[in-house]
Write the structure tokens for this entry.
Amino acid sequence: MNAADQWAKDLAAWAIPDDIMAQAPESPWIHPAVLFQIPDTIPDSISHQRAREVLGPDSSVLDVGCGGGIAAFALTPPVTYVVGVDHQAEMLEMFTRNAAERGLRSDVVEGFFPAVADCVPETDVVVSHHVAYNVADIDPFVRALSQKARRRVVIEMPQSHPLASMGPAWRHFWDLERPSGPHPEDFVQVVRDAGFSPQLELFDGAMRREQTPEQAAHFMRIRLCLPASREGEVGEFLASQPPVTSALACVWWDL
């Protein structure tokens, strides 16, 4: 089994069992827009540095899975033209508004990448933060990102699957053990198999947190397929848990 097939197999193991899904009052696969709002000051990171170091004046960036655009707007200046791709219209509206507030030229494309790749222009750098674990068919994704970048592709991802931190909650509420893979090292092998020379850097990043404990309990309750009547119980569980850390990985390669 090659690295791309193993990646898909590992991601498939994260599927929620049918008997639990049948009890979910709403889809647990949520990406609340409130979590993707841009802070007044964007913390610097290895990922932003690796993108910025190959950019000259009046550069351009493509942000795949852009959300509000934190990965793109961390690069302004020197970037003056930003392109956002996301499958949620609400995210793209936020991206466009954030670009206008910063006096930047911008374009957006709604849909899943690489399905919409033909509608996306080439840019100097392509960034994609916290997206790779949502992509099962990873080889075409990597190749399409590379085709859109003139200089460099920069990927940021957690060192563990983003749902791994929910393991104690799944165990507590459903007596369900969750998988652990894949990991950034597995992604690196996918990129290498595609013919590129990826670099991997590990670091501790700033946490993106829900606005309030109440919102944290609300979103967690939905992700756990639990009814609204148990939201208070979820909040009590979260309050009893140690703080979640943000161990991140930056994978980048030049074109």
